[in-house]
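Morning!

As promised:
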Amino acid sequence: MTTIVIAEINNGSIQETTKELISAAHSIEGNPVLIIPCSNASTADGASNFEGVSQVIAAKSDVFGTYDASAWADALDSVMPQGTIVAAASQQSKDLAARIAAKRNLSVVQDVVSIENGEFTSPIYSGKAMQTVRCNGDAVITVRANIFNPVSSGGSNSVQVVDTSGNVATAVREMIERASKRLDVSEANIIISGGRGMGDPSNFSHLEQIADVIGAAVGASRAAVDTWDEIPHSMQVGQTGKTVNPNLYIAVGISGAIQHLAGMRSSKYIVAINKDADAPIFQHADYGIVATWEETLPVLKAAFQSMMA
Amino acid sequence: MVNIAVLVKQVPDTNAKIVVQGGTRVDLSSVKMVMSPYDEYAIENALLHKEALGGIVTAITVGDGSAEKILKDAKAIGVDELIRVDVTQDMDSNALQHVLVEAIQSVGAEVVYCGKSAADTGAGSTGPGIAQRLGWASVSNITDIEFSSKLCVIAPMGGSSAKIDVSMPAVISCDKGNVKVRKANVKGIMAAKKATVQVLSANCPSSTIEIIRHSMPPSKPAGKSFQGGDSANEVARLLREEANIL
Ligand SMILES: Cc1cc2nc3c(=O)[nH]c(=O)nc-3n(C[C@H](O)[C@H](O)[C@H](O)COP(=O)(O)OP(=O)(O)OC[C@H]3O[C@@H](n4cnc5c(N)ncnc54)[C@H](O)[C@@H]3O)c2cc1C
Ligand SMILES: Nc1ncnc2c1ncn2[C@@H]1O[C@H](COP(=O)(O)O)[C@@H](O)[C@H]1O
């Protein structure tokens, strides 16, 4: 059986998670073919030292300049061999995976967090339960970040460039600058989120200062988003916000309602700061601090500053 | 007159406790079922589309008889026609999409709205999957929409977002965004009581994905608990030395 990995690309460069996808593919079978969607073949150079791949193909096409689901699926389908396809469980790649699966009449299994003996496990019911499935034949799989150990980079691969194309069905009229230049929660490896317990939207500046020290994105609970106009829905984590899977999630003044947990419970490490020792968030925290944020955040900021210095 | 379809799915209430029965399957027998939250935004966008350009909105669900409740809920908010495709077995994404495509074609829809992901699967596969099978355009996770001969949507794009023109036919998967979901009024509730659901039988391909088991999420070892703001020093140290972060 052949496995194929679709590299995760952001702003023309291969993301580190691609190395995790390769290692996930190893858990299925053998060394995968790595496909790199790119508009400029030099994007693929970043993969020349990845270990554990059987072949590296740069799928080169103008369509890869901007995301268009239909064109990307066409263009990738025509260069990929048959087999089980592995992609990242990012918003865009989940969309692409569903398109490619449908194009090949395959099923898609999204958000895989473990692969064992040919069985794939993903969270269901917003992480309140897990589902383990077996695929009879090829399938398309997306894999969550920060779970599989990335392959190392001691290899030497030659990159084969293949031109491809697809039918574009949408047109970007304009990009919308984000109101804030801050990192988006869906892109961040560390997130610090505030809830209603922050008391006032201006207090989110304390979270931003810490975020700047450790390179984190700032998120929010729905109560914060609904209560304060200054906190946009794009920051919301949870059932009706974003699902995030960072290395570290710091929840400040957030009670830990089930719909908030739905968006962040699979974070690798969770820190909770809450003045109520009985807040449900503490049941999910690796490190829980029972205290107000007013007394905690200045200490945390100083500690991070001296660590990062 | 635009022929608009909206896909709705019945899922457990997001507050419901989920239990795994006998170590193998989730037991939903005593769980309250509701319309999947994002499908409410899909309905709202479908109704806005109808109001802007004229047309008819058909709500489609695939499921057993109990799923008709959410179709009635859709009717109460203002949807015109209700269709349930009668399927009781487990379906993988391939089988579900197959069945939905048949239903969409049978109503002659030119545009389909759906939720960005269902609250049970969390997958987000259905919108892009059916678009591919229909050979249509699709944009997923939209937060805003303007109606003219084309649709213009706002959707995430490369860590930011973009205004995107989409020609019809198209499948639009809906995130929460800025629309406010309307509530049923008395007239709608009366209409829903009298509404009939058209039941279609399905030609459902067998699934290639077999569910082996459901299980509870792995329980995390109990975390460490600290008192007082000064303990943030210790937590920062543990994040570096124990968790290897930072
Ligand atoms: C269909 C549906 C979807 C939903 N989707 C989401 C979602 O996507 N995301 C989401 O977050 N919620 C969602 N919710 C809402 C969710 O149920 C909760 O209402 C919400 O998460 C609560 O937010 P919170 O923790 O900020 O506020 P609260 O529950 O009010 O908690 C505030 C916390 O702050 C603490 N606090 C107060 N002052 C301080 C202080 N000075 N220092 C430290 N701690 C302090 C309090 O002890 C308390 O625990 C959804 C609900 C429904 C029904
Ligand atoms: N059984 C179903 N019947 C009707 N619509 C569905 C069904 N399953 C999924 N959908 C639609 O597809 C969206 C995404 O579902 P999913 O791909 O499972 O995350 C849902 O929000 C619904 O709009």
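The CA atoms of residues 84 and 138 of chain A lie 5 Å apart.

Hope this helps with the figure draft.
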